[in-house]
Amino acid sequence: MRIGQGSDIHRLEDGRPLIIGGVTVPSAKGAVGHSDADALTHAVTDAILGAIADGDIGSHFSDRDERWKGADSFVFLREAAGLMRGMGFEIANVDSTISLESPKLRPFIDEMRANLASVLGTSVENVSIKAKTGEGVDAVGEGRAIRVEAVVLLRPV
Ligand code: MG
Asked: How far apart, in whole angstroms, are the C-alpha atoms of residue 37 and residue 117?
């Protein structure tokens, strides 16, 4: 078995799309980034790369590379999952926490889980996504950022 951890943070700005786990969440503010700024997908990608000790999302997909400008972050996740399989591993489970002041994410969580499970080649039961606010504290609580933490456990196929 191998364990990996990932985290990500993106600034929020008015008028940007808010894409989380491949779901476009209706929101006045969205995340700013070189790609589509999907913080959940970035954190899970980094967790997988961490579990196989193969660098990080920045070393595989530079934010200075024009190819990844506005990119669908599932491209990154799919690549990481391919590297994982190449090493003879599959997902045992994923757990993650999204910290976002608003909007409430509960109505969108199951679609996010299904999206991640599909790309990772695992079942929805193996993908946990939790959501919480920042309780008015720090950049998340002030509505200026979205933060995600993720852990994955891999098992040999
Ligand atoms: Mg990111």
From this structure: 19
DSSP-assigned letter for residue 138: H
What's the topology of domain 2-156?
60s Ribosomal Protein L30; Chain: A; (3.30.1330)
Please list all protein residues whose beta carbon sits less than 5 angstroms from ligand 1, which is an ion: 8, 42
Cα separation, 50 vs 2, whole angstroms: 9
pTM metric for this prediction: 0.96
Nearby residues of 8 by Cβ (< 8 Å), 6 or more positions away: 39, 40, 42, 43, 46, 147, 148
Rounded distance from Cα 123 to ligand 1 centre (Å) = 24
Q: What is the pLDDT of residues 27-43, one digit of tens each?
A: 999 999 988 999 999 99
**What proportions of the chain, in percent to the nearest 5, are helix, strand and coil?**
35, 30, 35
